């Protein structure tokens, strides 16, 4: 006769286990011991946190090794390493964002910072604002306009060139020698130091327009040298993952190849292509070196990329820090530089979010 | 409209590899012809030569003649695009265009070629194509939803509707049911039976019962071994192939005693 079996108190299926609260106890102990050790050599918050973390990991692993056995101890060790590396990787990022936020917010919130240029702002105004304790004059408007225009033109150049190149590579080349050469050159271009791109654009326009030509457009050409390989690479990957079945389905309907590419392949890949382009923009908008040698500096608004020097956010930061407007009172310049840095980071973040949004908007629709 | 296909001395290559050797066959108008044979014997390869889809693969080429009502598909100056708009194709895996709605999928052949079509003509074409594919009742309320939201069987019928919408003379189907469940398979088989009133239908299948159910004539392909070319072994009325085949290897294959 079958009887219902009652559950055993101590399951034979489990091994020794540490009580659930063990990590908290170990953590508490680690913090206290670390504090005690720190007291011996002199207190320091960073070293304290680091020591606590190491002691916590060591305590956790040892206690587990004693009670729970080898496998669980190794599991805990690996977990500690993974989490530890993650925190180490996160540290610089958080620290950078924190520093920029703390230093940048006052400047960014100063009235007129976003709306005015540096036109007419000299050491006199900066000295006055320090001595009278009035808000810092001058702003970033001209640099913001310059950055946006230069990047826009760089995008206008890079996207057609990059996209058409990737279309050639994926749809037409059939892996011939020429395409291998292009792929190799694109890979080399990905690694070009940005200053070299700047020098290339300078030299190119020195040949065409005469030496010393510095305009926003020259800068856009320099940036597009950096952008094109990124666009080619990301678009190429996106076009490659469009299933061949879709191309064949289109051919089988009697659709020509170029129409198939235009109406089937690109629309299917457009979400990936667009987010790749957005990320490429984010990548070049913070470039400094090529802009220094191609667009020069400017303190007033210039909306014509084809004539005259043009400011941009990175060069604005660079000049404000390296050559403060008022050499005797560099603080207003530093404040403007940090605020511009914050603005640049916000811009890049916005572009990254934009990339996700674009990917979502263009993604092939599913659902019933 | 429906046209017959006459194939003579056809050799099909992938680069230097001879995949299918010396096929001579006549596919009658308004009939269903089934291609059967073991995997790798070149059924798909041969089928794709019938609408010049074979040459889409780099290095792939063809020797011989394929006549569509007397016009050689492979003579000089024939545009493969023209050929393909007259000989449609349905693939093994349903492949509706993921970026398009059900309606746009049906209209794809027309719209992608940017032929002008009025809204009322388009509506009529969508309805008639989907009705011919026995799909109209199931999707008429959600024509603007994406085609990828349909079940596998519905997607395959959508692909058939898409092929019908360009009003071809011939429809080629490469194992159209192999990714489908038995109910959807039955729906497609019924559909094939209706399609032969208007079209020349050629179907590749691994399912012997299916060949017996849907086809008027059956062609048996075989291969001597890996790396050898596939060959057309026997072509006859379906009943003959299954009940009274002329070749020993055909009999072995259809009775399941293969290998
Ligand atoms: N794209 C291709 N490139 C080279 N060889 C191929 C390709 N597709 C098929 N083949 C070869 O052609 C032969 C016939 O293949 P296939 O027509 O797919 O057979 P089936 O459809 O009868 O299973 C096989 O030997 C296969 O390896
Ligand atoms: Mg096949």
Automatic annotation (TrEMBL), chain B:
Gene3D superfamilies assigned: P-loop containing nucleotide triphosphate hydrolases (3.40.50.300)
Signal peptide positions (record): none
UniProt keyword terms in alphabetical order: ATP-binding, Nucleotide-binding, Translocase, Transport
Location of the ABC transporter domain: 5-248
UniProt-listed InterPro entries: AAA+_ATPase, ABC_transporter-like_ATP-bd, ABC_transporter-like_CS, P-loop_NTPase, PstB-like
One Pfam assignment: ABC_tran
Gene Ontology MF terms in the entry: ATP binding
NCBIfam families for this protein: 3a0107s01c2
Protein name as annotated: Phosphate ABC transporter ATP-binding protein PstB
Organism of derivation: Arthrobacter cryoconiti
Gene name linked to the record: pstB
């Amino acid at each position: 006769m079958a009887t219902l079996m009652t559950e055993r108190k101590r399951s034979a299926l489990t091994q020794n286990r540490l009580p659930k609260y063990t990590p908290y106890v170990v953590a508490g102990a680690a913090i206290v011991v670390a504090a005690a050790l720190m007291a011996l050599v002199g207190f320091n918050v960073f070293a304290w946190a680091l020591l606590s973390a190491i002691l916590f990991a060591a305590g956790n692993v040892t206690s587990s090794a004693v009670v729970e056995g080898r496998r669980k101890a190794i599991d805990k060790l690996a977990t500690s390493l993974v989490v530890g590396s993650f925190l180490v990787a996160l540290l610089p990022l958080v620290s950078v964002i924190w520093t920029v936020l703390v230093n940048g917010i006052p400047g960014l919130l100063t009235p007129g910072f976003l709306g005015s240029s540096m036109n007419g702002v000299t050491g006199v105004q900066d000295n006055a604002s320090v001595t009278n304790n009035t808000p810092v004059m001058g702003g970033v408007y001209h640099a913001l306009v310059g950055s946006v225009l230069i990047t826009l033109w760089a995008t206008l150049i890079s996207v057609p060139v990059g996209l058409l190149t990737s279309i050639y590579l994926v749809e037409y080349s059939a892996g011939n020698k020429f395409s291998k050469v292009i792929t190799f050159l694109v890979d080399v271009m990905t690694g070009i130091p940005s200053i070299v791109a700047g020098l290339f654009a300078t030299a190119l326009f020195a040949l065409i327009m005469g030496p010393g030509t510095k305009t926003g457009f020259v800068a856009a050409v320099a940036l597009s040298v950096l952008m094109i390989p990124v666009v080619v690479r990301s678009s190429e990957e996106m076009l490659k993952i469009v299933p061949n079945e879709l191309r064949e389905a289109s051919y089988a309907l009697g659709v020509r190849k170029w129409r198939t590419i235009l109406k089937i392949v690109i629309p299917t890949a457009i979400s990936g292509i667009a987010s790749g382009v957005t990320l490429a923009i984010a990548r070049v908008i913070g470039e400094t070196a090529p802009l220094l040698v191609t667009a020069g500096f400017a303190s007033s608004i210039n909306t014509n990329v084809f004539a005259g020097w043009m400011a941009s956010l990175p060069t604005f930061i660079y000049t404000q820090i390296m050559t403060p407007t008022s050499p005797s009172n560099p603080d207003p310049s530093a404040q403007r530089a940090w605020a511009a840095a914050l603005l640049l980071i916000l811009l890049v973040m916005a572009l990254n979010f934009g990339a996700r949004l674009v990917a979502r908007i263009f993604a092939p629709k599913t659902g019933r | 409209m429906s046209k017959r296909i006459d194939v003579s001395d056809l050799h099909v290559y992938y680069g230097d590899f001879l995949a299918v050797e010396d096929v001579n066959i006549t596919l009658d108008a308004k009939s269903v012809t089934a291609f059967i044979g073991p995997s790798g014997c070149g059924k798909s390869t041969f089928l794709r030569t019938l609408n010049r889809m074979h040459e889409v693969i780099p290095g792939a080429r063809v020797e011989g003649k394929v006549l569509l009502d007397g016009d050689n598909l492979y003579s000089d100056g024939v545009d493969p695009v023209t050929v393909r708009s007259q000989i449609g194709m349905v693939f093994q895996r349903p492949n509706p265009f993921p970026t398009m709605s059900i309606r746009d999928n049906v209209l794809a052949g027309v719209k992608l070629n940017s032929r002008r079509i009025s809204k009322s003509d388009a509506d009529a074409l969508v309805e008639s194509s989907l009705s011919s594919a026995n799909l109209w009742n199931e999707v008429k309320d959600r024509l603007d939803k994406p085609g990828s939201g349909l079940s596998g069987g519905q997607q395959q019928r959508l692909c058939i509707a898409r092929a019908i919408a360009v009003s071809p003379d011939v429809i080629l189907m490469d194992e159209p049911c192999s990714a489908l469940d038995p109910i959807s398979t039955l729906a497609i088989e019924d559909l094939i039976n209706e399609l032969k009133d208007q079209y020349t239908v050629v179907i590749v299948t691994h399912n012997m019962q299916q060949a017996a159910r849907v086809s008027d004539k059956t062609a048996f392909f075989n291969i001597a071994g890996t790396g050898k070319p596939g060959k057309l072994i026997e072509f006859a009325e379906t009943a003959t192939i299954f009940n009274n085949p002329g070749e020993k290897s055909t009999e072995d294959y259809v009775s399941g005693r293969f290998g």
